[in-house]
Amino acid sequence: MNWHLVVRTGDRDNYSPQFAPSSARIFAGLHRPGDPWSIGTDVLRVLHEDYGFAPSSIAVDLLHFASAAYTADLRIPRDLTAERWTREIVMHLPVENLATWEAARLEIQDLMGFLTGDRWELLLRQRVPIPLPRAKKSPPKADAVCLFSGGLDSLVGAIDLLAAGRSVALVGHHGSGIANAVQDRVLETLKNAKLAGKLLPFLFYVEPQKGRDRVGEPSQRSRSIIFLALGTIVATCLGSTVPLVVAENGLISLNVPLTNARMGSLSTRTTHPFVMKSYRSVLQKLGIVTPIELPYRFKTKGEMLKETLAPGVLKQAVGQTMSCSHPEAGRWSKNPNVHCGYCVPCIIRRASLHAAQMSADRYIVDVLTSPPDSGGEKARDLTAFKIAVERFQNTKKHNAVFNVLASGPLPDEDVEDYAGVYRRGMDEVKNFLKSATIE
What we know:
Blueprint: E1 2-9, E2 24-30, E3 40-41, H1 43-50, H2 57-75, E4 88-95, H3 98-116, E5 119-126, E6 144-147, H4 152-163, E7 167-174, H5 179-192, E8 198-207, H6 223-238, E9 244-245, H7 250-254, H8 273-286, E10 292-293, H9 301-306, H10 311-317, H11 344-355, H12 380-393, H13 399-405, H14 415-433
Parallel strand pairs: 1-2, 1-4, 4-5, 6-7, 6-9, 7-8, 9-10
Antiparallel strand pairs: 3-8
Helix pairs in contact: 2-6, 3-8, 11-14, 12-14, 13-14
């Protein structure tokens, strides 16, 4: 069954395609006050009013596409499909430069298919220009843009750029959850740190409307496309040579399936090398020349922590960060920085802190001292890690190449380096699981 997502931009856009009575459809509005399906966002307002930027129409269209893709991912349930996973999504998207987008259309569909595990079709149509207010101030300058999630990796990326004396635009994204509070706390620590560089914060709000039952699809495979689009629009405003820095460790980027049963919903691809290669190619076809840098793609999370340029600042801020895939877990313990402790990101986080000989965080479940009952939902990721570590120890070194290729295509020249970071990352997890908690 096809799901149609009809995107409308501006008050004058009343596009309504003809559907068969049985067709499933949802709507998403942008710059449409009063539309019940408007995507909540402050991106263009912040860029114009707060910073004096005037983004190009192609960058605005990219943001619209990413916002719509995120909406589709949240609102279209996977459990209504035959195998309860792969969705057929048809996006009706208005763009200003139709020919340019048509040239990139097939590549965009392939990128989104790999990223979310769905089948995408992009139907393009001409949109009318959206009137934007004239900027009232001179825009600031920065020589790098760094994605800023409020997690450990993005903290290290920000610290290293600032410690090197760079002027850095930090680009974050949040909805109605705790992400904004987490990002604000980490940002405050960075502002108070005596680092050489200059910090320019962009903490954007993007929140699609949920469906009638107010429950969104939890997998959220497309969240990285929003981050990338937000970083790209800021980078294009700052100048064509300003790079977009994606600070993510190699083990998480590869996200090699821990077991054969975890190839689908439990094996995300948010910053997989193939995603980043495809995104670069899409930008090139759209005429956006923003360089994308992945400085930690061959480093483990532990190596990132150990090799940071400002370890003192890292130690001050590490407790403010959030890496958990259940970020709302701490709400019931009255402490929003408490991690669940049992998800994949929590286990990798604890393994990296152990490798860097840094104090452990607070966790609802301590998988070392009080592991969850086997067979339960909370034990799923821990059990998978134990199986993966055991299998990893009993395979030959060169088999790591086959493991990393199992998660998706890699450039031939980088396969050995990715295999190396996978081996070292799994060693960090193995050593952590065999250890006592470091206080």
